[in-house]
Amino acid sequence: MKELAGAFAKAAQLIITFDPQVLEVTFRTLRISLTSTIIAGLLCLPFAGIISFSNHSGKRAFISFIQTLYSLPTICVGLLVFILFSRSGPFGNAGILFTPSAMVIAQIILISPILLGLTISGLSSVDKPVKDTAVSLGASRAQVIWTVIKEARFSVISGITMGFGRAISEVGCAIIVGGNIKGFTRILTTSIALETQRGELELALALGIILLTMALIINLALSIVEEKSR
Amino acid sequence: MKNVLQMAISAAAVLAGIFPLACQPAGNRQRQDVPERRSVLRLATTTSLYDAGILDYLKVFFEKKYPVRLDIISCGTGIAIEYGKRGDVDILTLHDLELEEMFIKEKHGIRRQPFAYNYFLIVGPPEDPAGIKNLEPADAFAKIKSEAEKNPERIKFVSRGDNSGTYFRERAIWEKAGFDFRNIQKASRWHIETGRGMGSTLMMADEMLAYTLTDRGTFLAYKCHNLAPLCSEGSQLLNMYSAIAVNPKKHQRINYEMAEKFIEFLISEEGQRLIGEYRVSSSDQQIFIPVHKGTGK
pTM of the entire structure? Predict the structure, then answer.
């Protein structure tokens, strides 16, 4: 158990001394995960709105499909993106395998089901009168969707938080699509995997603590946004 | 009430705007500093070589010499070969002669150059309950098997089980000792397959007080509390590392020019000296022996 105490001490030391390597990896992690969360959010929010308001017969089945994808193993997403963007794959000419861009794409695929699913269920929980009122005030379809999204903002924000959590903590995608290249595609989770493999258990745990600290800061920022809106 | 979502989105936009700017430390800035024509050389390597730290060490010297950025992807031997076949990397560093020769024979690679070697180690508890110290590797394996069958609770062997170069070597030693490897694999009471990398496998052997086969670099770099090297000699333990340039005719945009340069750098006087001088921080023992005698020590 002394490793745990050691890990906290090490994490504190790495943070206080602004260890340049750790700082670099941490910022890269945040940059990649935030980029993918934001893009996934921008794609999923309107889509969730459209699905939530449709009365299509396939809606139930589609939601079940989305919820099944919550269990998508990260390594499978990684493999999929790898096969697509490998030089022998259909998009090989893009030349983005083993770059942060490929990692962002993989993370978007990974977290979109969560964002979609949670937003859809958040939107459906909004009371029908809200919709009816909006319609009776002469709102267009897009305006109705926007009103309901505003009403459901807390579940939307918690969906985004969950999506970000999955993006920043996954290792399977990042290692196969990014390649864990030092100074280029190495992020916190892949460093943790590498340091564990090397037997540097304290350092690996310390990096985990740093990752959680980052997540805490982002979540606090989001909850402030939430708080202000009350 | 304020428009929350707009706030959230603008906050997100601000973050998205700030982060790409604020979070472009070393990696990206370095890349802006270097001249445009600096090309990228992608190297896929077996984990044991990377985990020993020597490639990151050689990278610094190589990048100083040539206008290139060396991207090192550390992965299992199996996937490294797959990357090579698909043209996703320009050069490989491996340590399994059979796989390397197959790769060349199938025309995926065009130049194979050994550049460093050391010996695999059979490690185990220092008390050595199976009594294998200083035996020939095949004899040691046979002894582990016969002793473990008598006492499978106390004597165990941990195997990588992951199609890595080290795993193939373990298999070859079992075959040399006259056993069918499939039967060994079935002996699950004392033969344990981890399916993991060398570091994790050593960690498990360390916890179980078991025997295992390891490369020297990982063993020295990793702090094993309960394991000692027991067998370190015999041609069966020779561990030769080679670089192979991926065939540029098979795929577009293979950086063959720099792959050649890297291979030449590895076997140059300077490269060979650096390889011989390399040490890990936890030990002052030499890890890799250069292939050209008389250069380095």
Answer: 0.79
